[in-house]
Design a protein that fits this description.
- By secondary structure, the chain is mainly beta.
- The protein has a single domain, classed as Beta Barrel (Porin), CATH 2.40.160.20.
- It has 3 helices and 15 strands.
- The strands form 2 sheets. Strands 1, 3, 4, 5, 8, 9, 11, 12, 13, 14 and 15 form an 11-stranded antiparallel beta sheet that branches.
- A hairpin with an 8-residue loop joins strand 6 and strand 7.
- The protein is elongated.
């Protein structure tokens, strides 16, 4: 609630400064960048207690390429506000789930899976910028603002790998993966340097910290509704899907005591550093 109030106040500040906004030249910023960071909180679970469960918490993360376009409005001599839209994709490798057969089982060994979460986000950003002139037409500045992130998620690499002592031993699990959506409010802040290149063109570099937390998910089956698999899943599970579920290994033809296996995501954190550079055009 506090985040939403802060965003409303921030946007209202722009609306309440119309004379300043229309009396100065505006700029367009185009930049590209790389971000480093991000983590997730995830969980493996089963519908029975048959398996001996283990996990590998070595959660990996990958750098992210992003693009951003902004319109910058001067408000006062060294202060400006910008509104922008961006796009970036990120990959997070989830916790490896390991399921070992108990001593009472006819099988001996274990099986495991390591999900990979791919998601794409389109942020709408509002940023305040305070600058200090170090020499004519060149400035250092600090920036800070808020953004709303519209995101979608997919699960990849959901194959079960088997590690049985007898090669002929197999399990019969049918993987059901899901697509998901999640939106969230986030914050960002950083520093930059802007230098005049001539003909109303400026080059700039920035280092920005971003903090976004996704904790509410909407999941849907990633299965073509025209396929036979969709009919089977609908017959078995119905239309309901747990909001945090992103992977479901359906026990298909195996012993009932094995149960089903689920992979769910509780939170995704984008607490990361972004290094970006680009071109600003003054009109």
């Amino acid at each position: 609630m506090k985040k939403k109030i802060f965003l409303i106040i921030f946007l209202g500040f722009i609306v309440l400064s119309p004379q300043k906004l229309i009396s100065e030249k505006f700029s367009i910023k185009l930049d590209v960048g790389l971000s480093f960071g991000g983590r997730l909180s995830d969980l493996w679970s089963t519908t029975t207690d048959y398996f001996i469960q283990g996990t590998d918490k070595n959660v990996k993360k990958f750098s992210t390429f992003q693009i951003l376009a902004e319109i910058v409005f001067p408000v006062y001599q060294n202060f400006s506000l910008s509104v922008g839209v961006g796009n970036f994709s990120k990959i997070l490798k989830g916790t490896k789930g390991v399921f070992t057969m108990p001593a009472s089982s006819a099988f001996s060994g274990d099986f495991f899976s390591t999900p990979e979460i791919h998601f794409q986000s389109i942020p709408i950003l509002v940023t305040a910028n305070w600058s200090y002139t170090v020499w004519p037409e060149s400035k250092v500045y600090i920036l800070g603002g808020v953004g709303y992130y519209f995101s979608k998620f997919n699960i990849y690499n959901h194959i079960i790998s088997y590690n049985f002592q007898n090669p002929e031993e197999t399990l019969n699990y049918f993987p059901l993966d899901y697509r998901g959506r999640a939106n969230s409010l986030g914050f960002h802040g950083g520093v930059g340097f802007d230098v005049y290149a001539g003909n109303n063109f400026f080059f700039f570099v920035e280092s920005v910290y971003r903090h976004v937390k996704f904790k509410k998910f909407e999941s849907i089956f990633a299965i073509d509704s025209r396929s036979r698999a969709y009919d089977i899943v609908k017959e078995q599970l119905g239309e309901s899907v747990a909001e945090s579920t992103f992977l479901h290994f359906l026990n298909w033809g195996g012993d009932e005591i094995w149960g089903d296996i689920f992979y769910s995501i509780n939170n995704i954190f984008l607490s990361e550093i972004i290094f970006q550079a680009g071109l600003r055009i003054r009109f």
